[in-house]
Amino acid sequence: MKGNEEGYCELCERTGVVTTRHHLIPREEGGKDMGTVKLCLPCHKQIHALYTNRVLGLRLNTIEKMKADERIARYLKWIRKQNPENIITVKKSRQRRMSR
Ligand SMILES: [Zn+2]
Ligand SMILES: [Zn+2]
Questions:
Q1: What's the 35 CA to ligand 2 centre distance in angstroms?
Q2: Ligand (nearest to CA of 40)
Q3: Contacts 24+ apart (CB under 8 A), 3-9
Q4: Closest-approaching ligand to the CA atom of 11
Q5: Does pLDDT of 4 surpass 60?
Q6: How far apart, in Å, are the Cα atoms of 41 and each of 29, 30, 47?
Q7: Helix (H, G, I), strand (E, B) or coil at 87
Q8: Beta carbons of 20 and 3 less than 8 angstroms apart
Q9: CA–CA dist 56, 24 (Å, integer)
Q10: What pLDDT is attached to residue 86?
Q11: Nearest partner of 24 among 16, 15, 33, judged by Cα
Q12: What is the CA(21)–ligand 2 centre distance, in A?
């Protein structure tokens, strides 16, 4: 997770958010050439909290697959209702509740 720029999150589709680059397939899984997607910080944190790099790389290696995942879809429903300015201050306890 690195690089901060204002932009568009490909997962929750919010704009004006700080985005980070997520490698769709981790390098150790041979994903060097598979590219990256831009995710806002909460989305990025959330997918890594829900799934290991291995699962993300093998099973959730496109934005479409991530969106179709039941647990991620539930999170997306929630995040889209949030005010982007509040997101940054979301406490860990809340995220933990979301992740199960
Ligand atoms: Zn997002
Ligand atoms: Zn990532």
A1: 12
A2: 1
A3: 7/38, 8/38, 9/38, 9/39, 9/40, 9/43
A4: 1
A5: no
A6: 23, 24, 10
A7: helix
A8: yes
A9: 7
A10: 60
A11: 33
A12: 7
- Residues 44-52 have a mean pLDDT of 97
Tell me which ligand sits closest to the C-alpha of residue 24.
Answer: 2
For the residues 17-30, what does the mean pLDDT come to?
Answer: 82
pLDDT bucket at 67, cuts 50 / 70 / 90: very high
Chain-wide mean pLDDT for the chain? 82
User: Against a cut of 0.70, is the pTM above it?
Assistant: yes
pLDDT for res 1: 45
CB 75 within 8 A of CB 48: no
Domain boundaries, the chain: 5-98
Ligand positioned closest to the Cα atom of 19: 1
> Distance from the CA of 63 to the center of ligand 1, in angstroms?
11
Alpha helix ranges (H) inside 33-89: 41-50, 53-58, 63-68, 70-79, 84-87
